Amino acid sequence: MNAVHKPSPRSVEFPPPAGASTAPVSVHVRRRIAAPAQALFDAWLDPAAIAAWMRPFDTVRTEAQADPVVGGSYRIDMVQPDGALVEHVGTYVQIDPPRRLVFTWASPATQHKDSLVTIEFIESDGATEVSLTHEQLPEYMAQAHVGGWTSALEKLAARFGSAA
Q: Which of 26, 61, 140, 150 sits CB 3.0–4.6 Å from 79 for a disulfide?
């Protein structure tokens, strides 16, 4: 029996443009979602849930693996429309359900260096504000991450109903 060879997706890189600043900066996005904090918190730790909603912009497929314990690692691979693969890896630093989640984040956009993501879940009046801060990003990638996280949170909101 002949095996069908499926080509591996090519990984992408995001090198800094000439003259671009790689100084570390922070970005912040937030979204109020009509869902309980625990459900939203859990959606950040369950690989099947991550694969379903963490598809910023036009990402066509996301694959996720996670060991959601402090010190555990995760991997999130996002496949782009052209077949390119954007790999994200990190380690869980703090898991305080359903209030706070902190993890490192390394990807081609961070030049494969650890950055830090902190997410706070503030539940009130039947909805939860998801407040995300991403620190230690190269400055030239800051706006791309604002857009990416905003898009991902929109898809998280859509998975749980709507924005509140």
A: 61
Residue 88's alpha-carbon distances to 74, 75, 83, 123, 132, in angstroms, are: 8, 6, 16, 28, 17
Residue type, 99: R
pLDDT in tens, 30-52: 999 999 999 999 999 999 999 99
Residues of the domain holding 46: 24-159
Neighbours of 122 (CB within 10 A): 15
pTM, full prediction:
0.91
Identify the burial level of 69 via C-beta atoms within 10 angstroms of its C-beta, where 0-12 means exposed, 13-18 middle and 19 or more buried.
exposed
Q: What is the pLDDT of residues 87-145, one digit of tens each?
A: 999 999 999 999 999 999 999 999 999 999 999 999 999 999 999 999 999 999 999 99
3-state secondary structure string across 42-106: HHCCCHHHHHHHCCCCCCCEEEEEECCCCCCEEEEEEECCCCCEEEEEEEEEEEECCCEEEEEEE
Structural domains in the chain (count):
1
Q: Is residue 3 part of a domain?
A: no
Count CB neighbours of 137 within 10 A: 26
